[in-house]
DNA sequence: TTGTAGGCGTTATCAT
DNA sequence: ATGATAACGCCTACAA
């Protein structure tokens, strides 16, 4: 078995009580400097490591926070997680990560796992599929602090770290309108996801402001995956009266759609201008480069963990919704070249 | 405090002993089906959750594995982690993630944290800076199973999940030679990182095979970050006799170098052909698109966790080094157009 | 300043 | 089949 030295071993060796050892190792002032130094030296010598398991059980704190996201291998999310991990580490917290793969079932299981692991708090961005909230209600019932970022859950009282999706969608649509576009299609996600609703609202508000009629046949709902973008491109290609612009609620769908359109001889942006959302790095490298909305993922992640840690240390803190800076990044896919 | 129902609460309510409750909840056959059903129903009703902390302390297992990587927000690593998390979850293991940011210090601290958290095993890819191995030796000393992927550590006996870096570097260089290139520069990483040594070796072997003289002034060592690529580009621009090709040990340096070269009027690939390494997705979208080496990160991650779980369940299993499929992906940055 | 004792929640062992 | 007991390792009132 493993090389496990306990405070009892140290106690025996040093002929002290284990409580003295415990205090010394915790730098408690309630032990002489001399004994403390002696004990710490011996502990180091013997390679003693505090057993976090036992310590946690005793203190009922794990100094671990759980993160549940749709998937890690997407730039926005991995960058947000990088920010979370960085701040958590600085504050001596560990981070457990799980991916829901946008599935309700997996999300449920992950939450269950995290709760029974006694995480001190949870940061999450909801799965696309999630339309029931029993698992999230349980988090609240257990009084485990929770912070949503990006994809919030309106049904659950919690802290939220967001960008102003509606305003940015408005900006994106307005930008297309001001560039002279009249028939602007919108790619939206599943209706239970808050941000896609917000982006849809922003899109509609912009149309309204400029007196463009909202055409329901120009609003396409999908999972916004790569293949969805391709399918939608083919659908658009088959239309007699094509849109002259597309505002997609994410970059993946925008880019894959753009590729298919181009392969069929459509000129982007001349024939159809395209704007995405999220500012994935590869959008800067496509031809044409993709106009998109920067969501400041690193800042979102850092703000999410800061908010969570505050809530953990201060359980009565008022719940807040914080908006992180965001902006439309103009590139060539929406500019007349 | 939290809504925590324990087996003792259930015992009191059902007028049974806590050990019976424990057995029932563990589906032990040593309890009547009737009582078991009764207990399980009641547990569900009251929202009982096993306290993983206590259970772990008892069993001396955490069912948690630690992952230490340079940074999460890079495609290769986030994808590998996605694979790790997926398989871990299927096997009812949790994953703790830490980023060393390529710093030895942070890596040390992370390892220490993971060890005192009693993780059942560790998967890691070494930090660029790491040139001392005391922290890694401690992992071995504690008999905690460890698997390296991508950036291994030759000084530590462990499982390794790799690609054949040397062979792929050879392929890349040979490809440039067969395309008629004579002065092929190489961007390598810090010398303590195994994979960069391997890629350098592959590069040299290809030169040798085709009787090209190895020119030490064409081998550039750096951290291979974006800014390094730019600096190297400027350095190359200042040369009287420029290379006609560059083989970079990663994509980031390759792409940023390519950009700077192009801005200065160099035609890629005509004047200088470029090949990267890692096949980051954005390489497919640059102009010209970047020839690179696919490292199959998802498969590497899955193989790493499979190997680790096997080692955990079977501590005497022989240590292995597994090579994952990899291949040179030809794109426009190295083809005469 | 140091020691004693008990408990965090679970589970394995032994007894009934 | 079920109950009693002890132990995993740590921490903290309380006592001395």
- Structural class given helices, strands, pairing of chain A? alpha/beta
- The CATH superfamily title of the largest domain in chain A: Response regulator
Percent in helix of chain A: 40-55%
Q: Write the CATH architecture name of the largest domain in chain A.
A: 3-Layer(aba) Sandwich
The end-to-end span of chain A amounts to 69 Å
Shape of chain A: elongated
Order of helices and strands of chain A: HHHHEHEHEHEEHEHEHEHEEHEE
**Annotation, overall tally of beta strands of chain A:** 12
**Tally of separate helices of chain A:** 12
Pair of chains with the largest interface and how many residues each contributes: A-B, 52 and 53 residues
Descriptive overview:
The structure is a homodimer of 337-residue chains. The first copy, chain A, is an alpha/beta fold and 337 residues long. Chain A folds into three domains: 7-50, no CATH class; 61-163 and 297-326, Rossmann fold; 165-294, Response regulator (Rossmann fold), CATH 3.40.50. In chain A, 43% of the residues lie in helices and 14% in strands. Chain A has twelve helices and twelve strands. The first copy, chain A, has helices spanning 7-14, 18-25, 33-45, 52-59, 75-90, 104-116, 134-141, 165-178, 194-209, 226-237, 251-263, 297-313, and strands spanning 64-69, 94-99, 121-124, 146-149, 159-162, 184-188, 219-221, 245-248, 273-275, 292-294, 321-323, 327-329. A six-stranded parallel beta sheet of chain A has the order 2-1-3-4-5-11, with helices on both faces. A four-stranded parallel beta sheet of chain A has the order 7-6-8-9. Chain A has a two-stranded antiparallel ribbon with strand order 10-12. In chain A, helix 9 (194-209) links the parallel strand 6 and strand 7. In chain A, helix 1 packs across helix 2, helix 2 packs across helix 3 and helix 8 (165-178) packs parallel to helix 9 (194-209). The mean pLDDT of chain A is 94. Chains A and B meet through helix 4, helix 5, strand 2 and helix 6 of A and helix 4, helix 5, strand 2 and helix 6 of B. The first copy, chain A, binds a DNA duplex (16 and 16 nucleotides) through residues 4, 6-8, 16-20, 22-23, 26, 30-32, 35, 50-51, 53-60.
